[in-house]
Every structure is written in structure tokens, then in C-alpha cells.
Design a protein that fits this description.
The complex is a heterodimer. Chain A is an all-alpha fold. Chain A has one domain: MetI-like fold (Orthogonal Bundle). Classes of the chains: A mainly alpha, B mainly alpha. Chain A: Its main location: membrane.
Amino acid sequence: MKRMKLLAYPYSVWMAIFIVVPLFLVLLYSFTEGNIHNLTELRFSTKGYERVLEPLYLKVIMNSFVLAAISTLCCLVLGYPVAMIVSKANPKVRGMLVMFLIVPMWMNFLLRTYAWMSILSPNGFLNRVLELVGLPRLEIMPGKTAVLLGMIYNFLPFMILPIYTVLSKIDKSVIEAANDLGANKIKTFMRVILPLSIPGVVSGITMVFLPAVSTFVISGLLGGGKTPLIGDLIEQQFMWEGNWHFGSSLSIILMVMILISMAIMSRLDRNGQQEDKNPVKM
Amino acid sequence: MKKAVVRIYMGLIFLFLYAPIITLIAFSFNKSKSRGQWGGFTLDWYAELFKDRLITEALYYTILIAVLATLISTIVGTISAIGIHYMRGFSKNLVLNINNLPVLNPDIVTGVALMTLFISAGMKLGFVTMLIAHVLFCIPYVILAVLPKLRQLNRHIAEAAMDLGATPGYALRKVILPEIRPGIVSGALMAFTLSIDDFVISFFTAGNEVSNLSILIYSMAKRGVKPSINALSTLMFVTVVILLLIINKKSEKGEELLL
């Protein structure tokens, strides 16, 4: 049986080449300057990181962080009740509801974001309806609000599903016990249901925050270039400017930011059960 | 009263989730080319769809890459998961942690890192690099889907098979594989879904000559997406929904399968 582990060796080599080496290259480029096509001509330099600290770029990084945090919070506030309602529905309806939450993800997310462009644009569908009802027009696209809306829209299911999974696994007798012991509904929720659902909340937050902070599609389409995020900067550097050093520094900063947020989240999770170790999608 | 509030809330949430999808489907039947106006009903975009070379080519690459990436990553992922299962201690942890990197890292970082590697190694970005990238981000999900099934496996079963004269290869095929099949299937489904929907990693690794549907849509989005793309996604969407309904009807496990 011992020889079975040999089966993992080819993949280990593959991982070394396609996972470890590329990340090292990014790290290398982030600390150097010079010709990117000739590794021997690279010189050590912290220029990439110094540029990150320029006010213009610091503002972009702050923006990405704040927008991602706000959208995560909105997803939590909107999604938790949905998860709760679904988990309380009777089994037949529950399956359907979960399916209807997943189905939208089966349409290409770029197209769904593009559809929001048509809905929100100044002459778009939403404004037509508002005009018809006699309400003032909404001029949110392109802009921050539209980007925020796009983020919430795209990532809301990622918040609902893990919370739902945890809530539906809670032992009903625990809740009954709380009721029998005289806790009212609010108290049962605060003292029993909420603490037990923390692992779901934590993986929900991770699954929303992570893609939100690194997106460049949503801001590109709905923000109209007015609200660049760190993802837009990275795309720009690698695809259009050809400044891999600055782009790599930005990528490393993004990774560090995410590592720090995840460390904070896992600390929060430590109080809850440590069941959900894999932050795999769903 | 409470029931009404719940109904209205869920109604609003579903309206929010489905508004863009309804818009897209409506526009696929719209005679007017501009996306603000309704010019009457037409099926022209559906007919035009199959004549448009850009779209059919992108569709071809999307499906080809998804099928190949799913096949390769399912086979390699399953074999590697079995190997990892029998590893111990430090090396096992190391392999598992590196395997988790593409899952945890933002797609954009995985994308630019791979692009950096390919270009530094003098490879031309194109079909091959895009396929490598897709296999790369699919394998970890297959491994993460298969490993739990291996843990549930009674290790004595394989040993018993070998005591009874089975070669390790025979025991693997006839004893271990059938037991972990559900994990393999859900891993493969996940790989296919991720590959077919991927934009960010493809965007950085595909180069100029190849593009999948997502890349095509992104390049069109700023100028205005052709209505035939709406028609295509309507077709794909309806296909998926019908498939899901069938699966859901067929088994009570439908929900589990989707998750």
C-alpha cells in the first residue's frame, strides 16, 4: 500500500512548475527592475513597491478594500435572512429554492454584469420605469454605486449557500431545548442559532470578499473606468502598460491583503466549530 | 402577516437575481439593435448566431477546452488524490497546501503568474497555454472532491483484496475506484462548470489568437454586445435549466449534486 503514494509524484512535479514557479516569478519581478525578457538583466529594486505607495495608487487600493468590505456586509445582511427562510421551508420547497438560487450562476457572469449595464444606464430600463411611476431618475452608472450593486449581485449566492448549509444542519432539538428553557425567539436566535451558524458566515464572507476585492470586470463594466480597483491596475500593467514589475508588486500586495483578512477570519472562526476547513466553493 | 413579509422579501431577492437574466433573454428577441429600445419580436439573432464566425469559434474553443480540461483534470486529480491519501506527515501537508493555492489565490493573481511563466519560458500564448491553465485550476477541485471519499473508505477493503490475490492495480480499479465514484463525478462536474465559465485566467493566458466566449463578451462589452450573443446565452441557459430540472426530478439527491 505504501507504494500508492508514488501516484502523487507526477502531480507534485506539475505543481512545482505551474503553481510554485509562477508565484516565485511574480515575487521576483516585484522586487526587480529592468528587461523582463532577460532574467540576467534584472536588478534588485523596490521601485514597484514605492509606486504602490503613491497617493494615487494607495487611494485605488483603499477603494477596492472599502468597496469589497461594504459589498460583503450588504451580502451578509441581505443573505442571512434568505438562508434562514430557505432552511426553514419544507423539504420540497427547499430544494426548489436552492436550485433557483444557483440557476442564475449558470449564465455567463460577464453577460449578467453587462445586462446590468443596460438596466442601469441613463436611458436604461430602470430609469424608464422610474419615469413612468413619476419618481426621479437614478444616475448611478457609471460609478461606485453601480460597481457595488454589481458586486452584491454577482456574489450574493456565495454568501447565502454556505450559511444555508450550516443552518440546515443545526439539530432541531437544540432549538426546542432553548424554547423549553424559556428563551424567546430573539434570545434563541442570538444565543443558539447565530453562534452555531458562524462557520457558514465565515466561509460566506471569505467567498464574497475574495472575488470582490480582486475583481476588474465589474469595475471595468459598471464603473466605466471612473472607479478603478486594484484588479484594474494589475490588468492594465500586465496587458497594456507592459510594466510587469509594478504589476507584480500590486499582485503581491493584493495577496498579502487577502492573507491578512483570512487570518482575521480564521481567528473569528476559531470560536465556532472547525468543521469547515476547506474554503472550497460550496 | 409574517408570512407576507417573508414572501415579499424572497420575491424581491429573486427579482434582483433574475432581472438581468430576463433582460438578456428579452433582448435576444429584440428587433432593435440598441439595448435601450424595444423594436418588436424577432428570431433573426438566433439565425445569425450560427453564421457568425467569431461566435461559433469562441463557442468551439470554450467547449473543447472545457471537455479536455475536465477529462485531464479528473483523471490526473483522481490518481493524485489516491497518492496524496497514502502520503504521511510533512510531505502530505506540503502537497495539500500547494494544491490549495490556486483555490485560495485570487484568479487574477493565478492568471498573471501563469502568463509570466509562459512568456518567460518563451511559450507563445494560445490554445495550449490556455488548456494548461484550465487543467491547473481544475485539478485542485477534483482532488478536494475525491479526498473526503477516500477518507471514508475502509482501508482494510483494499488490503483484503490484495490478500486474496489482487494486484495493486486490480484492487485500485475494482475496489477503490467504485467506492470513490461519487467524489470523482462531483469533481468532474465542478471542473467542467469552472472551465466553461472562466474568464479571468483565460483572459491572461489565451493570447490574441484564441478566445473563449467570456473573452469575446468582454471585448464586445465596452462597444456593445451583439444581440446574437444574447441569443446564444439564452440557448445555453435554457439547456442548463432543463437539465437541472430533469436531474432534480429524477433524484431526491438533486440538491446535493448541485452543491
